[in-house]
Amino acid sequence: MASISIPLPLRERAKTGLLGWLATVDHKKIGIMYMVMAFSFFLIAGLLGLVIRLQLAAPNMQIVDAHTYNQLFTMHGTVMIFLFTIPMLVGGFGNYLLPLMIGARDVAFPRLNAFSFWITLGAGLVMFGGFLLGARSDASWTAYVPYSNKTYSPTIGMDIWLLGLILLGIGSTLGAVNFLVTLYTMRAPGMTAWRIPMFGWAMATTAVMILLATPVLTAALIMLVADRNFNTQFFSANQAQLWQHMFWFYSHPAVYIMILPAMGIVSEIIPVFARKPLFGLRAVVISTALIGLLGFTTWVHHMFVSGVDPVLERFFMFTTMVIAVPTGVKVFNWLATLWGGSLNLKTPLLMCIGFLATFVVGGLSGVMMASIPIDQYVHNSYWVVAHFHYVLFGGSVFGIFAGLYYWVPKITGRMFDDKLGKLHFLLMLIGFNVTFFPMHHLGLLGMPRRIATYAAGRGWETGNLIATIGAFLLAFSVLIFILNVLKLRNGQPAGDDPWEGNTLEWSTASPPPEYNFREIPVVESERPLFDARWRTSHLP
Amino acid sequence: MARTASLSEHPATRRDATGQKNKGGLIGVMLFIASESMFFLGLFLAWFYLRAMSTGGWPPPGVTPPPALPAYLNTAVALLSSAAMVCAERAIARDAQRSLLIWISIAGALGIVFMAIQSVEFTVLANLAQGSAYGSAFTFLLVFHTLRVFAGVVLMGVVLIRALLGQVSRRRRLLVQATAAYWYFITGVWLVIFAVLYLS
Question: For A464, phi and psi rounded to 5 degrees?
Fold first, then answer.
């Protein structure tokens, strides 16, 4: 590969040990810290989920009282979304990979990057510390007014929760600025727009959404804090719907903030393991951008039973159905990439196939619910719980594990045990579907979400018991992953490029040195490493 | 085999027409301003939503809107301050350090005048905020705008100190450009606030 020499920055030798981590501005170390933080929160929120499932395993269970149950599902949702999925995908994968993939030595503003991480961790500790010390919010992750106002949530738990979210918003907004400037100004020579890896495009779209959606939520959060503590009148009486509008104006794009990076990961992995270029790169890029754009125009579909003007409802029904089109384009592009490829069925690819299968189920139930009459029937039932777990676990979490199996060898320099990985995949796929598929049925049978327990004789017993069994299988599969991580220490050395990758991160050592590249590579196509391998094998 | 690349091709060493190293910092500021705009858009949406939902009139009966005179004065102050900022930016583009010092001081002083005039308004707003949705939305727009004015004045203070230390020049004026961009944005937001809150 062609490359050019740029003098290495005259930074003093990287500090090692604890201080090396606490004081670092290296995007890779910050990325790893995001990943470790997010995964820890994933385990905690998963445990909360298990308690929820135990409580619902049979009718009239009293493992926790109704009040505690409300706190559990509030924290489960909040932590999974704000402290696991978003920090893992954007903070973890985004930080570690973006500079490497575009041939840069760091992000544009390394110190701002460190600030983003520490404020995110601080927000997590505030929220979770409050939870452990008894200052717990119980108004669910959507914090609908009036549940979240002073009358119905009188304790400080709600304020702590709001404060945590405001801090998280600051961290992720600054992170988004950083990624966009990095992508715009720091690409290696020759990396034109159409040569940016798909993951880079996904992160760019995600960053734009974070940048434009988060401040509206921040405004709403501050308004709620003021309503609770300074007697302002934003969400009182007949204006409570204002909260729903402002909350979903952020939180619907947040769904795409959680899925687009996972789609980016899948778009990187499938071509490598199918040993073909990504089918229709430009179509995938354009549909990603379209999803980002349309993502801002669908939020009212969360409010079809809130009493919004019916004309407005129909508009949002239409946009919600339209957004399935670019999503469908991407699914067909991935399938076309796999089609006729020389498939290398290692764990990363299996996770991508798991992603495709389960995400499509979630996407289809989403299109069904976009229809107002169907939504009015299934709204706030377990059908909805099934739908968003298919999208966020079946989509985002399978994407995250695909990414971990694919890039942890780069991060650590060691290979995972592939057999153990396949076992993890199989059990996770089965456990996931056993847990969440019955919830479709439970929802259609009329089981509302967020109930602490239920009476016998409604036909909900079997479905709930199956779901609980599935949840434990799912949890067990995650234990296998942890075992696999622990075994990394004795894993096979990965070498620079264990998968025959396409993107620049595979051209440097595993783990990469602090400066990433000794020589800045020159990019001549969207698959620079494929070019390099081709040259070595075809030219004298 | 592969083409060779020259050092000047790399973004880390590329320079723009004014000789500045790269525009990353300024783009970052613009993106930050975009997110700030969305914050105010949220507050304005709340204002219009609450106005549309209000049943008894806007402002509701019994609520007297805050006096408009300070707002008219402040509109003039904000525009003058932004004009001074334009002069400051032009001064440093010519490498005129003394001129920069003078103009940035004028712009900053006008920013402080703005906050002083606004403080008159706040004596009324403290009660207004609690009485009605109208008062709450009104107060929020003014309070969060004034916070930005404060941030802008602090930034101008930093520019002033760094200029006095001789750390600002034609080639190193990103801080001035960033401060100016943010200040124009704050002025723009004020004009919208003025139009929506006082003129409509």
Answer: -65, -40
